[in-house]
Amino acid sequence: MVLNSPDSLQASAETQFALTHSKLTAGLAADKLQHELLELEMQNEELRATHLALKEALDNYASLYEYAPISYLTLTTEGRIAEINLTGVALLGEAREKLLNRRFSSLLSSKDADRWHLLFTSLIRREKKEMSFELVLQTDQQRVLQMQANCVFLMAHNAAPTVRMVLIDITEANDRKQKERDLRISATAFDAHSSMIVTDAAGDILRVNQAFLDLTGYTKSEVVGKNLRILKSGRHDKVFYGAIWESILRIGSWKGEIWDRRKNGEHFLCWLSIAAVKASDGGITHYVATHIDITERKAAEAQIFNLAFYDSLTQLPNRRLLHDCLISSIEMAQRTGRQLALLMLGLDCFKSVNDSLGHSAGDELLQQVAARMTALLRDGDMVARLGGDEFVVLLENLTGPHDAGRVADDIIAELSRPFKLSQNDDVRIGVSIGISLLAQHGDTPQALMHNADAALHQAKEQGRGCASYFSEEFTAAVQARIALGSRLQRAIEQQELQVFYQPQVNIASGQIIGAEALVRWHDPVHGLILPTSFIPVAEETSLIVAIGAWVLRDVCRQGRLWLDKGLPSLTLAVNVSPQQFRRCDVNVLVAEVLAETGFPVGQLKLEITESGLMEYQDNITEILQNLYDQGVRLAIDDFGIGYSSLARLKSFPVDVLKIDKSFIDNIPDNKDDMEIASTIVAMGHALGFSVLAEGVETPKQLAFLTEIDCDSYQGYIKSCPLSAEEFAEFYLSHI
To answer: What backbone phi and psi angles, to 5 degrees, belong to 73?
Structure first.
């Protein structure tokens, strides 16, 4: 027996312990592994159960999504259909594969396309996250669907943004609402403002509305059960009523005007509409009638017709009715071969009556003129008023062209007799007449009117108070004047006018004391045009106002410029047309120009013709006095040819009389002209006026004027009219 040492025993024990510990540790690890494997198996089982539950839930969701009673769509940000459930597919009536990736806007009705674009854009831009609205779909099967759309913008993680849409078909609901509305409308319509009656097939009244009772004055108990005959006025015969019922039986309705009777016996004109109500077998069961009282409307229509076709002052046909009648008359004359004439009338001196006695007197005069001409003409003839003092007479069935001349002479004689007005019982005027004949002077209303108007101008040119037939030569002259007026308008706009200055000289001292401003027209095509050619044209239109204002402003501007350059002061004379006094406020114009230019008021002289003073004598005195009070000097131009009275002449605040050139031209050969010139100078001095002679061209003329103590002159003997630059040099050389 071998005994082990303590060290070996200890080593053996430690080894045994290690082996035992190792086995124990291994056993524990195996147990732990086994336990973890069991737990893992349990977790796998739970995961499988969860997966199955999730799959079942997804299947249920898919089933709910696909077969939900509401249509679901998912749209891309480009508006294309990315998803759609089966309900939506069934609603739209297309296969899913045809709908996917299709633009939703292609399903919309045209009227909703623009609105959809705006709403969808608002969603995509996130201006609104969700919205609800109605729209109309138009499917490929031509079905029209009313839809309620609810849209939501969605942003998913790691996925493109989309728009989720819910569509609800509200077509049937809208149809039901529409039917309900129609019923309410029908019920309301019966009780609306229009009078309505329902009768049976025999015409006995079954029902009426309140409007009928208000219209006729009956109560419901007084008419229900009665026949429609209670409304008869007695104004229509059996034939009229027979035609009504014949129409109802033939086409089922009748509409027209009819006189009916209210309860109080009053008759009223109404628009009656009767419709037959038929059963399924075609037999008439009821009648529905509406009444609209048109009595006042008819009166208003008559008034409107009168206003549209008749002159309100004279009650004569106006231009519009004349034109319509002229068309018919021309057609009739061309068929029958009878002669037709058109007379254009312009009253002479009517403006003087208007200006002196006032517009009310002018209106009264026009009414009396209309009455006289109406009484003078035959029943088949027409007299119309165009406006102002212009009238037109249409003569039909003439035997020859001279008949028109005889009628014109009768009119001239009739209107030459004095008129008795409220303010004056001895008013005298005249009339000028232009005549155009059908075929000879035109075959249309426009041509006859135009040529009669041209003939009227010719009659006025011939001295007024006469008649003139249309002529081509005179028309050509009128057209030339019209063309000149158009060119003159352009000349003003393009600044083709220029002011020239003719010196005015003191006879005693020989010094230049002033200058008359004379306007010239430098036409780029026709060259220099004198005022005698274009001023009359300007006076026939409003152009004279623009020209007169421009000349006054340019003269005052030039006068101020000369003073600023050191030229001695002198008076500048500007002609003022009588038409300027009529068409603008000369006082205001002068004040504005003087203030604007700074030209001294005492150096401005305005010249108006003697005939102009006499034509506007009732209004001109106050205007001239206002100018005179401003400090403006005044002169009467062309004196001696206007037949003014000394009493009137003395009342005008005038400084200078200008002897007309026609009295100077033949001095000293014509003794009468010398006597007239001497008389004007003596009379002018006696009235306290300075006297200036126009158109002095010879030494003998100047010597005679010196002899009779004329104060000043102007004319070619001293200088022709000069441009502003030339006049300044001439003036400085004669100081």
So the answer is: -135, 145
